[in-house]
Write a structure and sequence with these properties.
Helix content is about 40%, strand content about 25%. With about 290 residues, it is an alpha/beta fold. It has one domain: Rossmann fold, CATH 3.40.50.1820. Helix 2 packs across helix 10 and helix 3 runs parallel beside helix 5. The N terminus is likely disordered.
């Protein structure tokens, strides 16, 4: 009888081990979900009146109603086209916007700004054409645009000059070992450290940082939910569950705020949910201003 029990225990152990191995070997893929419930409204593409200047990288837009003085606020937005950041700036009428659209993938945005002098040259060029000093400077990124923000903040001079960071479903990193899970995933945190440092400054009230994320699970790299959780955990903060409508028909599920650091979590695991965050740019800029 004892031998039989030992045999069954061995078989059970082998079964559990095999199941764990099978889960670990299963390929991870982006979510195939398509969401049909919400309407996902979109901003109308338009060309608001104002002054436009083509720069070495990107395009500078100064809305007609913007008062350009000795110091003028500037938003530098990465990824998502040119017209939408211009619409956002025109609605606010309190800042100029430098829109930078380089292509797909965070590395496309990181590469030019790996040159430690690139961002400084870009600001100088913009200031010369606008005949003002841009201050305060806000870095805004949707999706892959975070790659540029990471490189810029890694330079101490620019870290000091940038006052606000806005990440719209936009912070990713890799997984240790290249795969998630099977339970809570281990993140490659090196690429997150500069964002954590900026977040600490925001909590202390010296900077401002506003982060939004959806529930999209890319599978091959860490989601914006996981990276937001990392920042929240490292800062010793906790989420508050909420259920309310957000901008562009989004549904907010959670919120974290401490000092000038704020994270909003939204429902949705499909491509339209991701694009919602880009079209909410005008609302998000107002939020980071409040």
């Amino acid at each position: 009888m004892k031998a039989d029990l030992c045999g069954w225990k061995l078989l059970a152990t082998c079964a559990v081990t095999f199941a764990t191995w099978a889960v670990a070997q299963r390929e991870q893929n982006p979510s195939p979900m398509v969401e049909h419930t919400r309407s996902h409204p979109r901003l109308k593409e338009e060309r608001p009146p104002g002054r436009r200047e083509k720069l070495e990288i990107g395009s500078l837009f100064l809305p007609d109603k913007l008062s350009v003085e000795a110091k003028t606020p500037l938003v530098v937005h990465f990824h998502g086209g040119t017209w939408l950041p211009e619409v956002a700036a025109a609605r606010l009428s309190t800042c100029g916007v430098l829109s930078i659209q380089l292509g797909a993938g965070s590395s496309v945005y990181a590469k030019p700004f790996a040159d430690a002098k690139q961002f400084g040259r870009l600001l100088t060029e913009a200031e010369q054409k606008a005949e003002t000093r841009f201050e305060p400077v806000t870095l805004s990124g949707w999706s892959a645009g975070y790659g540029a923000i990471r490189e810029i903040l890694s330079e101490p001079e620019y870290f000091d000059r940038v006052h606000r960071v806005l990440l719209l479903d936009a912070l990713h990193t890799g997984y240790v070992g290249g795969k998630p899970g099977p339970l809570e995933s281990q993140l490659e945190t090196d690429n997150l450290e500069i964002f954590l440092r900026f977040a600490r400054e925001a909590v202390a009230g010296r900077k401002k940082m506003f982060v939004t994320h959806t529930e999209i699970f890319p599978g091959t790299f860490a989601s914006t939910t996981e990276t937001a959780d990392y920042l929240i955990r490292e800062l010793g903060l906790k989420r508050t569950a909420v259920l309310k409508w957000g901008p562009m028909g989004t549904q907010q599920l959670s919120e974290v705020q401490s000092g000038n650091f704020r994270v909003l979590g939204f429902a949705g695991n499909s491509a339209p949910d991701h694009v919602d965050q880009l079209h909410a740019l005008p609302d998000s800029l107002k939020e980071i201003d409040r």
